[in-house]
Design goal:
By secondary structure, the protein is mostly helical. It has one domain: Four Helix Bundle (Hemerythrin (Met), subunit A) (Up-down Bundle), CATH 1.20.120. It is built from seven helices and no strands.
């Protein structure tokens, strides 16, 4: 079996099982697979295996498809998308580092609301979504693009599935934060920040010397 076919099958199976599990968890709490089940359990092993498999498959297939098709009139756009994907990937690592791996995966307390969390309630998910969405588009191949879309959906559903857990854990503090900052991208805060920067840079009117009569 060619390695590409193996990756496609592994990625598709992982995506379908994750999406089915996340959907089922929204219908019945007993079927919940996210936030992550207790470490060491069979369910935890299965969820993490599927999740990591899908991430690796999309990353490998996306990069391979991009590098092997560097031609055509859309190449400048694809290169730009690949650059955005790389930047978003770096931002993801930074967001992961700022909160910590355990807190990212719902294993530690502490509600973060400053820094990057003024821009999004879920910086890890938001940056991962941006990174994989643009990588899937840059790849311009049906398998990599479809699997990237499925992974984006997985990240989005994980963010939604976490919210009841966060509300139960942090109560009114989280509800107030939730009302102020969007789930993924705080465009309102971005516009306000840019407006404030523009206002500071606006040149003041200089009155010329009055003419003598």
């Amino acid at each position: 079996m060619p390695i590409e076919t193996f990756l496609e099958i592994a990625g598709a199976a992982s995506a379908l099982l994750l999406l089915a599990g996340l959907s089922a968890g929204q219908l019945n709490g007993e079927w919940r697979i996210w936030p992550a089940p207790p470490a060491g359990s069979l369910k935890s092993f299965g969820v993490w295996t599927l999740f990591r498999t899908l991430n690796v498959v999309v990353l490998v297939l996306g990069i391979e498809r991009f590098l092997t098709t560097l031609s055509g009139p859309a190449l400048p756009l694809r290169v730009a998308l690949a650059a955005v994907s790389a930047i978003a990937g770096i931002a993801y690592v930074n967001a992961l580092w700022s909160l910590g791996r355990k807190a990212t995966y719902c294993q530690a307390s502490g509600l973060a609301t400053g820094g990057i969390y003024r821009w999004t309630r879920n910086p890890q998910y938001a940056t991962a979504i941006a990174a994989f969405a643009t990588l899937g588009l840059a790849a311009a191949a049906w398998d990599a693009t479809l699997l990237a879309a499925a992974l984006v959906a997985v990240y989005a559903m994980m963010a939604i599935a976490e919210e009841p857990w966060l509300e139960a854990r942090y109560g009114s503090d989280y509800l107030a934060y939730k009302a102020e900052v969007p789930r993924f991208f705080n465009f309102r805060h971005g516009v306000a920040t840019l407006a404030a920067i523009a206002a500071k840079k606006e040149p003041s009117l200089v009155r010329g010397p009055e003419s003598k009569r």
